[in-house]
């Protein structure tokens, strides 16, 4: 092998006009340690007919660089690695089809459950043809390479333009990669690029967006420090946030919006669960940025649930289909507009800056120094204290739950959500403790409180729809009345069941004791 290493690279997307503006910016020239070099590159990507490499999180390509052909195997980030770190193994090759003839490549694939000799025949799936402008940068104490790629992806008989800005760490600290990206943001219009070129090509070839990504359960060692556990949790949440941002930008799956919001909530819950290991100023700043993102996506999720879940159930139960159709048409228009607002937000510099600043803080060492002893405290002790604190707050907030009004029940729901996320973060630190059954009981409480909160949300949603212009106002009013009547009946049923569900949870022994 010519090179076996970890690639640390952060990608942004822009337009050709803004890419040219960036390369001409004097602020960039001040960071450069050499001239701009330009090169035409053509990369061909290979896999089996069954897409064995893609399923294993691996990418295999041949790239023509002048007269040289370079074969490269890349792998997705390993658990616990920074999300912008990938495995990369490159060597000189001959044009044609890649050859996997043992050595380090074989060992890498074997670690992912693939034996090269057992793979099917490799075939070219897609190609990426682009012009690359590169320059060396000095940022902090690190050496970086800036690459501006302009060209197109060709897959499945389709083409897609690309204009990416990539910052790769050559030598030094990962924090300087983020420092460089944040320094570039004011120089032109940028957005996050959550998908690698190969992932975009796979989506283009399939003619479908990347799938939504559900929350991954972050596993931790019992002897890990609280700071190490926090970093691992934040990395997992960050992967979920970026993956679902990509799914939202390229598709209309309601689950993508839902999981995008779940990632935000899990991040904010991690801040609360690790308050002792996070300086308060940073915690408040990041939480505020995530709340701004959440506010933009709230309406899209509410309308997805209304149009995709609630109205179909109502149509099956109610006779006035015409009135419900009017409500559905208005809600569908509102949902489309809400989705467009979310997509627009994902393309804005403010979203990129929020995510990059969080990732820069997460991967740097400044927060570790600021946290002091709290960072190095064993995670198990930290988890026990955190869960006790959140559990106590939930019990105090709930009090006599059957006597609470809707605003008070909403506060209980938020407390339950924080406790549940924290318990999911920490459950692996307490094996054999009954965490699964305890979490299931808490989930039942949260589901019933969520249904009650949905009723409140639904009333507000219908009020907003009622302010819109509608051709048949009478039909809309009939449909809205049907929805509100059904909502009131469901709310009454949930209120009857809630005290018993709460007692079942309340009587369970805490799994961290």
Description:
- Helix content is 56%, strand content 18%.
- With 513 residues, the protein is of the alpha+beta class.
- The chain has an eight-stranded antiparallel β-barrel, surrounded by four helices.
- The N and C termini lie far apart (52 Å).
Strand and helix layout:
Layout (H helix, E strand, L loop, with lengths): L2 E11 L2 H8 L2 H6 L5 E11 L4 H4 L2 E8 L2 E8 L9 E8 L10 H9 L11 E17 L2 E14 L2 E14 L2 H11 L6 E2 L4 H10 L19 H25 L3 H20 L6 H38 L3 H26 L2 H15 L2 H6 L1 H4 L2 H20 L7 H21 L8 H32 L6 H34 L7
Radius of gyration: 26 Å
Largest sheet: spatial strand order:
1-5-4-3-2-6-7-8
- Distance between termini? 52 Å
Helix/strand structural class: alpha+beta
Most strands sheet: 8 strands, antiparallel, barrel
Low-confidence stretches: none
The beta-strand count equals: 9
Shape: globular
Task: Write a compact overview of the structure shown.
By secondary structure, this protein is an alpha+beta fold. The protein has helices at 16-23, 26-31, 52-55, 103-111, 174-184, 197-206, 226-250, 254-273, 280-317, 321-346, 349-363, 366-371, 373-376, 379-398, 406-426, 435-466, 473-506; strands at 3-13, 37-47, 58-65, 68-75, 85-92, 123-139, 142-155, 158-171, 191-192.
């Amino acid at each position: 092998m010519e090179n076996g290493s970890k690639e640390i690279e952060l990608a942004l997307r822009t337009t050709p006009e803004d890419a040219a503006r960036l390369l001409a910016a004097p602020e960039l020239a001040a960071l450069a340690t050499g001239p701009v070099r330009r090169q035409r590159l053509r990369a061909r990507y290979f896999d089996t007919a069954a897409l064995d490499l893609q399923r294993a999180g691996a990418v295999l390509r041949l790239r023509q660089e002048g007269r040289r052909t370079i074969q490269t195997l890349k792998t997705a980030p390993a658990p616990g690695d920074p999300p912008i770190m990938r495995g990369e193994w490159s060597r000189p090759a001959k044009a044609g089809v890649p050859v996997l003839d043992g050595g380090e490549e074989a060992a890498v694939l074997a670690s992912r459950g693939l034996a090269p000799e057992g793979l099917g025949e490799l075939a070219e799936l897609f190609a990426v043809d682009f012009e690359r402008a590169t320059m060396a940068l000095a940022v902090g104490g690190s050496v970086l390479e800036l690459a501006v790629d302009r060209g197109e992806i060709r897959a499945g008989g389709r083409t897609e333009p690309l204009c990416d800005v990539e910052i790769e760490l050559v030598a030094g600290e990962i924090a300087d990669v983020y420092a460089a990206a944040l320094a570039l943001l004011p120089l032109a219009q940028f957005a996050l690029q959550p998908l690698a070129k190969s992932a975009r090509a796979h989506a283009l070839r399939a003619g479908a967006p990347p799938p939504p990504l559900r929350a991954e359960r972050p596993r931790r060692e019992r002897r890990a420090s609280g700071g190490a556990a926090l970093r691992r949790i934040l990395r997992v949440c960050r992967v979920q946030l970026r993956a679902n941002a990509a799914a939202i930008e390229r598709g209309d799956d309601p689950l993508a919006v839902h999981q995008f919001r779940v990632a935000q909530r899990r991040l904010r819950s991690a801040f609360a669960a690790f308050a002792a290991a996070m300086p308060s100023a940073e915690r408040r700043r990041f939480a505020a940025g995530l709340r701004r993102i959440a506010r933009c996506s709230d309406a899209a999720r509410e309308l997805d649930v209304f149009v995709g879940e609630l109205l179909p159930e109502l149509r099956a139960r109610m006779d006035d289909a015409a009135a419900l159709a009017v409500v559905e048409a208005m809600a569908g228009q509102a949902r489309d507009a809400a989705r467009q607002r979310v997509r627009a937000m994902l393309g804005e510099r403010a979203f990129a800056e929020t995510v990059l600043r969080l990732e820069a803080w997460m991967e740097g060492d400044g927060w570790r120094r600021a946290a002091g002893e709290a960072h190095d405290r064993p995670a198990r002790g930290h988890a026990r204290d955190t869960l006790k604190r959140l559990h106590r707050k939930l019990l105090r907030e709930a009090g006599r739950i059957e006597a609470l009004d809707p605003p008070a029940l909403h506060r209980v729901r938020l407390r339950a959500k924080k406790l549940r996320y924290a318990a999911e973060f920490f459950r692996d630190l307490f094996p054999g403790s009954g965490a699964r059954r305890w979490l299931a009981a808490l989930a039942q409480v949260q589901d019933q409180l969520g249904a009650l909160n949905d009723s409140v949300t639904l009333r507000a949603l219908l009020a907003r729809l009622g302010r819109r212009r509608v051709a048949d106002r009478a039909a809309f009013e009939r449909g809205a009345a049907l929805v509100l009547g059904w909502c009131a009946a469901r709310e009454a049923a949930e209120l009857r069941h809630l005290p018993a569900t709460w007692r079942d949870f309340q009587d369970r022994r805490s799994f961290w004791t």
